[in-house]
Specification:
Largest sheet: 8 strands, mixed, barrel
CATH class of the largest domain: Alpha Beta
CATH superfamily of the largest domain: EAL domain
Number of strands: 22
CATH architecture of the largest domain: Alpha-Beta Barrel
Bound molecules: ligand C2E, magnesium ion
Number of helices: 24
Number of domains: 3
Helix content: 40-55%
Shape: elongated
């Protein structure tokens, strides 16, 4: 290898800071040594440390070498040929046959002066030779040249020749890293595919030189945009050194931005991007407008793989260009107002509990006979900064999809227990409070510990807490569910089956579950007493519940006629707007205080004929 290549590539490898201190970044490369003689590796390491190298991987057993090479990013391998466990030739052959390792630079160390061994090593793909005993300056020179040569080729293979931007290969690697990093960061990763047709047109009209000039200016603008503080979001710890910009084809660039709060922010970035690229570029005598078409794919929403994101963004850019109306387009065909809102909500829901945006409303549960308050159900609401108070139907499914339901469920349980304990402390009675448990919470394996801890912290008596489970979560894993239910009841809490009749309970299993309460779903109540079918179903469910030793609650009682029906069928308890909608904690506490003054909860006016 000639020294010219070293000088040439070294110049290319030094940036301004390095040049000032004259420390070559090549010195940071990892040098690996495979030699059975510890003395030899120590000696070589000492020589190389003197030359400024500081990263070493050493093994005296060549059989470990392939694994090490795969794990460590090795810049150069110094390989002994004569080793008892495995010869250097064999290892070299294995390296060259390995798809991922085949380009590793290998300097062969040989004690023999004969040409045969050298020739054989050369044929097997050795990059260079060193004779033992090694000469310090010779060693330094060979290692440096080999590293420089390798780096030079790596650069050539990864960078676009005109702009110096990363090429598709390097960009895809960066994208893969960012996608992997995405699991740990908040926000969206946006992949912009940017087509500038002018780059091709100019080549046809003014020639390649002019096209290159335009392309270079656009590349610099793109780089500036990607590192602009108002674009680079502080929400994430960026993936170090991952390329953010690339030239993907003669008329195409790529841009990656991570940690974006909402699709609306992505849209704002796309608008800025289009405006920035459209500013005129002077090429020779001409002012050229590099008008761009931008396609945008978002991770994780448009797919999580590099391939899916790339294809999605490219296709969207083409569609934008074909339609010719708006300069940018999202990859998801249905990224309309509704899904945009859904995605935005999902991002905002993260940490909503921590920001104090969630609150609980409490709906009284009453005895059908006597209208006594026997408990309440805690129902979560999201006090959204823009949309106001949102019912759970608008965000619980999102929390489930995004894996946030356990965090929310834990908050709900903690808050409900704390508030119920506070009411008890104020002398408002030993009221039972029910919380809804989601499937994920039930399946996660820490529900028992969570309940125990919540009771301990809140000071609420265990018999005051009711957990509402649903049929589907019990039927999915009967054995596991049964064990968990027994563990929960051992803690002293009560279990209830919610929305009964909407799932697929096996009655055979139901009889084994330690459930104390069964709640009839509102859908069977709505048409009472008019619907003969519903009358029959509700009657049957009440009987079933009683026969299995459960108390039965009817949900969604809105009329006195419905309540009269329940009275007739011997239903135990009810919840519904007839008596009260779910109330904010303070209002519910006031209602409790009223009930406390009157031993029987004030009956609904309709029931007393005062309505
Ligand atoms: P659910 O547990 O069956 O709760 C009863 C729902 O029926 C509540 O709706 C309640 O406001 C409503 N409701 C009660 N009485 C009447 C009535 O007379 N008429 C009508 N039309 N509706 C009535 P909400 O609060 O919107 O909650 C809906 C569902 O969201 C709940 O159904 C429950 O499945 C879920 N949910 C609520 N809070 C939580 C929570 O903290 N965690 C989980 N995982 N789910 C929750
Ligand atoms: Mg419920
Ligand atoms: Mg229900």
């Amino acid at each position: 290898m000639s020294h010219d290549i070293w000088a040439l590539s070294q110049a290319g490898e030094l940036d301004d800071d390095d040049a000032a201190t004259q420390r070559s970044p090549l010195l940071d490369a990892k040098v690996m040594m495979v030699d059975d003689e510890p003395l030899m590796t120590e000696l070589i390491q000492t020589h190389l440390e003197d030359a400024g190298y500081r990263n070493f991987v050493v093994t005296h057993d060549p059989r470990e070498a392939l694994d090490l090479l795969r794990r460590e990013e090795v810049g150069v391998l110094l390989l002994d040929l004569m080793m008892p466990q495995m010869s250097g030739f064999d290892l070299l052959q294995a390296i060259r046959a390995d798809r991922d390792l085949r380009y590793t630079p290998v300097i062969v160390l040989t004690a023999t002066t004969g040409a045969d061994a050298k020739l054989r090593a050369l044929q097997l793909g050795a990059t260079d030779f060193l004779s033992k005993p090694v000469d310090a300056s010779e060693l330094g020179l060979r290692v440096r040249n080999t590293l420089a040569y390798h780096q030079y080729h790596k650069r050539q293979a990864n960078l676009d020749g005109v702009t110096g931007l990363p090429n598709q290969r390097l960009f895809d690697r960066g994208l893969a890293q960012m996608v992997a990093n995405g699991a740990r960061v908040r926000g969206l990763l946006a992949h912009f595919s940017i087509t500038v047709p002018e780059c091709l047109h100019l080549r046809e009209s003014l020639g390649q030189g002019s096209a290159d000039e335009l392309t270079k200016v656009l590349a610099r603008r793109l780089e500036k945009f990607a590192t602009d503080e108002s674009v680079a979001t502080p929400m994430v710890t960026p993936v170090e050194q991952a390329p953010r910009t690339a030239r993907l084809a003669a008329d195409q660039f790529g841009l990656l931005i991570e940690g974006i709060a909402s699709p609306r922010d992505v849209e704002a970035l796309a608008q800025r991007l289009v405006a920035m690229l459209a500013a005129p570029v002077t090429v020779g005598q001409h002012d050229i407008h590099g008008s761009a078409w931008v396609g945008i794919a978002l991770s994780p929403t448009d797919g999580i793989g590099v391939e899916a994101l790339r294809k999605g963004a490219d296709l969207a850019a083409r569609q934008a260009q074909q339609r010719g109306m708006v300069r940018y387009q999202f990859a998801s065909a249905d990224l309309n107002a509704q899904s945009l809102r859904k995605m935005t909500l999902g991002l905002q829901l993260r940490g909503a509990a921590g920001r104090g945006e969630l609150e609980l409303h409490y709906q009284p549960k009453l005895s059908v006979v006597g209208n006594r308050m026997v408990g309440c159900e805690a129902l979560v609401r999201w006090n959204h900064p823009e949309h106001g108070l949102m019912p759970p139907g608008e965000f619980i499914f999102l929390a489930e999809e995004l894996g946030l339901i356990c965090e929310i469920g834990t908050w709900v349980m903690g808050s409900a227990c704390r508030e119920a304990a506070a009411w008890a402390a104020r002398g408002l009675g030993h009221l039972k409070v029910a919380v809804n448990v989601s499937k994920r919470q039930f399946q996660r394996g820490d529900l028992c510990a969570c309940v125990q801890e919540t009771l301990r912290v809140s000071g609420l008596a265990a018999d005051q807490l009711v957990l509402e489970l649903t049929e589907s979560m019990l039927m999915d894993d009967v054995a596991g569910g049964l064990e968990l239910m027994h563990a929960l009841t051992r803690l002293g809490v009560t279990l209830s089956i919610d929305d009964f009749g909407t799932g697929y309970s096996s009655l055979n299993y139901l009889k084994h579950f330690p459930l104390s309460e069964l709640k009839i779903d509102r859908s069977f109540i709505t048409d009472l007493p008019g619907s003969a079918a519903d009358v029959a179903i509700v009657r049957a469910i009440i009987d079933l519940g009683h026969n299995l030793g459960m108390s039965v609650v009817a949900e969604g009682i809105e009329t006195t006629a419905q309540l009269a029906c329940l009275q007739q069928f011997d239903c135990d308890h009810y919840q519904g707007y007839l008596y009260s909608k779910p109330l904010p904690a303070a209002k519910f506490a006031a209602l409790l205080a009223d009930c406390d003054r009157m031993p029987v909860a004030a009956p609904h006016p309709a029931l007393t004929g005062q309505a």
